[in-house]
Amino acid sequence: MNSPILQLLVLAGIAVFLILRLKSVLGTRDGHEPSPEVRSAPASRPHNLEVIEGGPDHDITDYVPEDSESAAALADMKRAEPSFGVADFLGGARGAYEMILMAFERGDMEEVRGFLSEDVYESFAEVVAIREEKGLTIEADFIGIRDMTLNSASFENGVASITVKFVGELVSVVRDAEGTVIEGEPGKSKRQKDVWTFERMMGTDDPNWRLVATGE
């Protein structure tokens, strides 16, 4: 057998092999099927996967209703200072609550004076002075914060104001000058509810929020 015929037989065998191989991978077509253009048309995107520009900011709507005045104020704060985050603020407020509350219980307000407005500082300091005049001492142990809620927010003339409700738990025992317990019970915790308002001028170099009002 001469060389050209041998080459043709080899090529024919390869062609048959490729056809069988393609059928095993792609299958066979029976009856009418859409043209290639129709088959390759992209499927429509499910509505729940669409990205909607300008959608709700969950850093805000996780804490206040989307259509509330507080939500609008928090959004204004973010526009005034893009690095501001509601979750970050609440994390800082949690730490500030424990720090300020325990400073008050211990009667050492100077260490937290930079985090208080002058009115709040004087109010706390007055109570501490009265306790000292009466010879009262307080033994306190902070257990933790059981609940924390963002009550309201406002933003006016660059000043951000956020009110937070805390439900804390601590052990607090008050003793008189003779060491007799006159309030509380050693080893027994109690719940304490506070509503605190923090303020800060947005866009400044001072990152600290100050406690400007307290209530229950």
Can you walk through the features of this model?
The chain contains 6 helices and 5 strands. Strands 1, 2, 3, 4 and 5 form a 5-stranded antiparallel beta sheet that branches. About 21% of the residues have low confidence. The N and C termini lie far apart (107 Å). It is elongated. The chain is 38% helix and 27% strand. It is of the alpha+beta class. A hairpin with an 8-residue loop joins strand 4 and strand 5. It has a single domain, classed as Nuclear Transport Factor 2, Chain: A (Roll).
List the helices and strands and how they pair.
Blueprint (H helix, E strand, L loop, with lengths): L2 H24 L9 H4 L18 H4 L7 H12 L5 H21 L11 H16 L3 E20 L2 E17 L5 E3 L6 E12 L8 E6 L1
Antiparallel strand pairs: 1-2, 2-3, 2-4, 4-5
